[in-house]
Amino acid sequence: MNEHESVVDLRLDRAHSSRIYDYFLGGKTNFLADRMAAGSVLGVFPAALVAARINREFMHRTTRVLAASGMRQFLDIGTGIPTAPNLHDVAQGIAPDARVVYTDNDPIVLAHAAALLRSTPEGRTAYVQADVHDPAGILTAPQLLDTLDLGRPVALSLNALMHFVPDDGGDRAHEIVECLKAALPSGSTLAMSHATPDFSPEAMGKIIKIYGEAGTRLQFRSRAAFLRFFDGWELLEPGVTLSHQWRPDHPEDATHVTDAEAACYAGVARKP
Ligand SMILES: C[S@@+](CC[C@H](N)C(=O)[O-])C[C@H]1O[C@@H](n2cnc3c(N)ncnc32)[C@H](O)[C@@H]1O
């Protein structure tokens, strides 16, 4: 090892949210501790597999809609372990010149980032290893500034991320999102999904406990608290819905899952 190399401890002995989610999506980047925590979650909320899949599909649909509406710059925070199709695959499938910056705080996502960096020749992708608790650090990261022009509209996505940011008695999660929103120009968009206790509070309470025992703090939020993330921006139709109900590809997709199984609010808004 030379002086420029460093060892990152992936802490494979501890469950991590990105790897638990990877397990729910049927991925291979998860380890015993993650599978044990995932098993405990499935014990209290068997719909976690469905909830993860439809959350991912919300990202596919919003990215398609936004790319088709002319968005060419995407900033995806809390990206997750690469899972095909990734956001840039979807965006560049419609607009090959789309530019995408990915961010996550789990070093295992960095370790797999090569899959996120396979851009079209016309477009560009970049990865920033960062924590959403430091929005200013993300917005000034050299990889981001080399890839995105913050003077032009950006499609920001915070999918299944902000419930990992507890308020701790303050208003931290909303302050972070406001900081990100303020840095983007008119015409920018925010796509967001977020777990809620509104439909099965008991199961959601048990999930918070399971993640907490694994060292990950969660705060699920009500519809009113979720809506507040979009303050000052104009919600696109159909407004805030459950994740599977936001512009479903087929009408039956909106009804084959119950609200309690989806357990995640979703919405997209544009900055006036
Ligand atoms: C449930 S996954 C969602 C992945 C992807 N956004 C999606 O919706 O398919 C949540 C991701 O957020 C990341 N994450 C959690 N807390 C974070 C933080 N404070 N800063 C940045 N990323 C975070 C996790 O590492 C994980 O990859």
Automatic annotation (TrEMBL):
The question of whether Cell wall biogenesis/degradation is a record keyword is answered with no
Segments crossing the lipid bilayer: 36-54
| Protein name in the entry | SAM-dependent methyltransferase
Q: Which UniProt keywords apply?
A: Membrane, Transmembrane, Transmembrane helix
